[in-house]
Amino acid sequence: MRFVIVTGMSGAGKSSVLKMLEDAGYFCVDNLPIQLVKKFVKLIFQGNQKKVALGLDIRSGQSLKELDNVLQDMKKSGFTYEILFLDCTPEVLVKRYKETRRNHPLSGIGRVDKGIELEREELDFLRKKADTIIDTSHLLIRELKTQINRIYVEDVKFNNFYVTILSFGFKYGIPVDSDLVFDVRFLPNPYYIPELKKMTGRDPEVKQYVMEADAAKQFLNKLEDMLLFLIPHYIAEGKNQLVVSIGCTGGKHRSVTLVSELKKKLLNTEYGIKSEHRDIEKDE
To answer: 12 a known binding residue?
Structure first.
């Protein structure tokens, strides 16, 4: 039987993940009192359920502190479990709470950021025990669902490291959150081909034009090799995400194509991969 404990920061997507797991055939229970967890675990291990997910978070209040002992007892009794911790940056969490106009469980009538800070301290022991940590700060719902399916349905090995590949236009500035920046303005520019000018790097015609250049193929292969070399070293240094920015003049043609092609190459790795196109909708 597969037993997953879903926890993490309030507003990081726990309810959405439980719904995804339920749709995938998991028997899901949310916000069970800590005092009942042991009884619940015994019942499910005696039953016929093959996949179970239990949502636990800061709403358990003071009794959450008892969970550490409960988890230790479960291990001693031979009950196997996995912990999925959903994390998110404070800035994004504050924005989400303001947009939904909900109160943070620990903020009361005070500031949301103080509640988030206190919650992170309270949940630190669970984060340290987590088998999988997913940072949802910049994930779309469909991207989160893809990751959940890969880990808990397809059973693909997951590494708690996420790579965002971002296209951009130098004329609009380098993305401030970039870890690595690459300039592909050395490639032939589709902008100067009349029939390609109004298209983007998502269109097959533009992709074909860009990738016909030997330099594009060589650059892509060398970039893939370099990233596969660098990522384990970043992980060893404690990083859990990497933003790789690829820029051309306007961020609509060459950079978009290279980002799309690089994503294809990295999708079969053990890392989480997503792509974004910051300036694709802007006029050149």
So the answer is: yes
> Quick check: 109 pLDDT over 80?
no
Q: What is the mean pLDDT of residues 184-193?
A: 95
End-to-end Cα separation, the chain, in angstroms: 55
Domain that holds residue 89: 2-152
Residue 91 forms part of a structural domain: yes
Domain shared by 68 and 177, yes or no: no
The verdict on 143 and 181 lying in the same domain is: no
280 is known to lie in a ligand binding site: no
Lowest mean pLDDT among 33-42, 52-61, 95-104, 110-119: 95-104
The verdict on whether residue 236 carries a ligand-binding annotation is no
**What's the chain's average pLDDT?**
89
230-255 pLDDT tens trace: 999 988 887 878 999 999 999 999 99
For residues 201 and 177, state if they share a domain.
yes
Query: What pLDDT sits at residue 183?
Result: 97
Please check if 279 is assigned to a binding site.
no
Residue 10 annotated in ligand binding: yes
Tell whether residue 278 is among the known ligand binding residues: no
The answer to pTM > 0.85 is no
Question: Is 11 known to sit in a ligand binding site?
Answer: yes
